[in-house]
Amino acid sequence: MRCDRVWSKARLATFAVDRPGLGVVEDGVVATAGGRIAYAGPAADAPAFEARETIDCEGRWITPGLIDPHTHLVFGGDRAHEFELRLAGASYEEIARAGGGIVSTMKATRAATEGELVAAALPRLDALIAEGLTTIEIKSGYGLSLDDELKSLRAARALADARRVSVTTTFLGAHALPPEYAGAPDDYIDHVCYQMIPAVAAEGLADAVDAFCEGIGFTPAQTRRVFQAAREHGLPVKLHAEQLSNQNGAALAAEFGALSADHLEHLDAAGIAAMARAGTTAVLLPGAFYFVRETKPPPIETLRAAGAPMALATDCNPGTSPLTSLLLTMNMAATLFRMTVDECLAGVTREAARALGRLDSIGTLEAGKACDLAVWDIERPAELVYRMGFNPLHARVWKGEIA
Length: 403
Fold this sequence. Notes:
37% of the residues lie in helices and 23% in strands. The chain is an alpha/beta fold. It is globular.
């Protein structure tokens, strides 16, 4: 078999869809051709390779490149002052209702140029890349006007030109009510549905549409309108659901065949059943749970029993999860949510790809998929979940090239 590069003498965690657990191969080989995996499996079953380069992994582990399926990476300013207020006892809702929260970031984002937004986001992106990230989802939602939402989405797309990483963009115009629409949320939803979504779709700037369905966000009825507009423009949907209260958003998301419903601390049995039937992935965000000191974890046992796929993400954002480490995210999920090692690792590879609707092209070590790899200096995969503040990445491979 002719190929560009071969990694030999490796231990593989393939996460193959048709294999249980991690899909471990003790003496494995990965070969790439044209940026895609040509072979990933046991050395004993591998064909003879004609490769321009062969890399001896010396027993290191190879996993799929890590995927962060929920971030708000592009924004202006920071909210360190609000962190101080929370330490003094203010709640997330109190800060938001007093003009802080998302609206404060909106002001800084509107004031920034596209280039300034890119420059501010790059250090955050670089921190994730340094831990083996190869694909990231980036939401808008801090512009809250047509021009500023488009600017944010363009900045997110520009990050893919600045770094060797795949970027998926999500339009989150229904994130918060901007001040100019105070007292008129339905009018703002009209703007989102009739001006913003058509413009975003026309420019091809988003791969999906999201909304914040919550008491301090938008009602289920308003969210339904956003989803209907997204459907009319051929865009899949996802939803911030059941973070602070149960608004039955997860069931609504499932009704529209959503790629994912995210947060889910207050998710109920009916929402879980609807998600499981629809194949909607639960994206869990332990960084936000930790940072705002929530006490009600998402219903992991019930999600597990229902067979609902569970992904993990940093939720990187300035107000409730200023987190830029998927390794720490996994540790938080294990310690705070009691997820298993296998669930955590699948959550930032295979299930994260599923949450983005991209499981056909990334997230596992299988022939035909993008050759996105992370090579690790570890003795067992559990080390990636167990350690805190330690990065054992040996090499990152994006589309077959060592990055």
